[in-house]
Design goal:
Blueprint lengths: L2 H22 L8 E7 L4 E5 L4 E3 L2 E5 L3 E6 L13 E2 L5 E3 L9 H4 E9 L4 E3 L3 E6 L7 E2 L14 E2 L2 H4 L7 E2 L5 E2 L14 E2 L14 E2 L2 H4 L7 E2 L5 E2 L13 E3 L14 E3 L1
Parallel strand pairs: 2-10
Antiparallel strand pairs: 1-4, 3-7, 5-8, 6-7, 8-9, 8-10, 11-12, 13-14, 15-16, 17-18, 19-20
The structure holds 2-acetamido-2-deoxy-beta-D-glucopyranose (NAG) (3 copies).
Amino acid sequence: MNECSHGIMWILLAVLLISSKAHSAPNNEADLKGPVFLKEPTNRVDFSNSTGAVVECTATGNPPPEIIWVRSDGTAVGDVPGLRQIQPNGNLVFPPFRAEDYRQEVHAQVYACLAKNQIGSIISRDVNVRAVVAQYYEADVNKEHVIRGNSAVMKCLIPSFVADFVEVVSWHSDQNESFIPNGDFVVSQHYDTDVNKEYVIRGNSAVMKCQIPSFVADFVEIVAWHTDQNETFHPKMNYVVQQFYESEVNNEYVIRGNSAVLKCSIL
Ligand SMILES: *[C@@H]1O[C@H](CO)[C@@H](O)[C@H](O)[C@H]1NC(C)=O
Ligand SMILES: *[C@@H]1O[C@H](CO)[C@@H](O)[C@H](O)[C@H]1NC(C)=O
Ligand SMILES: *[C@@H]1O[C@H](CO)[C@@H](O)[C@H](O)[C@H]1NC(C)=O
C-alpha cells in the first residue's frame, strides 16, 4: 500500500465514525430505556358489526418503541382490507362490516400487543376480540308450576349466539309489575299473621310467637306487639306486663328490747 491509499482509508474511517455518531446522536447511550406500556389493551374487546372497534396500545421508551400486533402463536398480524388495520400510532382497528364479511380469524381472535426497541421488548396481556353481527332475537320464559308458598326458578332463555352479549335488565309481569335482577324479591301477596293462645298459671311467663307464613317469613320483620287494651310492646326490650299488686307489711309483735324481722310481702 502506498501513502496515498493510507490517506484515503483514514478519511473513509473518519467519515464512517462521524456518520455512525450522527446516527445514534438522538439516543444518548445513558438514557436508553426499554419499552413500558402507557396504554395496555384490556383483556376483552366485544363489539358489534355496526360499530366496529379501536383497540389502543401505546408504549414509551428510548428509542421510541415500535408497536406490533401478534396472534397467540406469536406471529405478527397485518392489515386485512376493510376488516382490520394497524395504524401508524399502534392502534388495531376493526371497521364496521357487513354480516357476510364476518371472518372468524379476524373477528374472533386472541391478539396481543408487542412493543419493542433496541433495548428489549414487552408483550401485553391477551386481548380476546369478538365481533357479533347485530341480528334479531327473541327472549323467552318457560312456565314453571309450583305449589303455592314454594319458590320457583324462572330463567330467561336467550339464543346462544347472542347470550354472551345480552344482559337481563328487568322482569315484567302481565300485571305491569317490574322486577330488577339482583334485588331480593318476593311477589307481593296477601298473608295473615297469627298468635296462638298460651295458657299459664298467673305469675309464670308465657312465650308468645308471631306466626308468619313461611313463604314470606324471610322478608317480614316484627316491629311491635299490641294488646287489645291498646298496649304496645317492641321486640328486643325486656317487658313485664303491668298488673296491679299491693305490697303489705305484716305486723310483728316483740317484747321491747328484742329485734323483730319485718318482711315485705309481695303478692
Ligand atoms: C351489521 O349486520 C346487520 C345484520 O346483518 C346489518 O343489518 C347491518 O347493516 C350491518 N352493519 C353494517 C355497518 O354493515
Ligand atoms: C300496563 O301499563 C300500560 C301502560 O303503561 C297500560 O296501558 C295497561 O293497561 C297496564 N296493564 C295493566 C294490567 O295494568
Ligand atoms: C284503642 O285506641 C283507639 C284509638 O287509638 C280507640 O279508639 C279505642 O277505643 C282504644 N281501645 C281501648 C280498649 O282502649
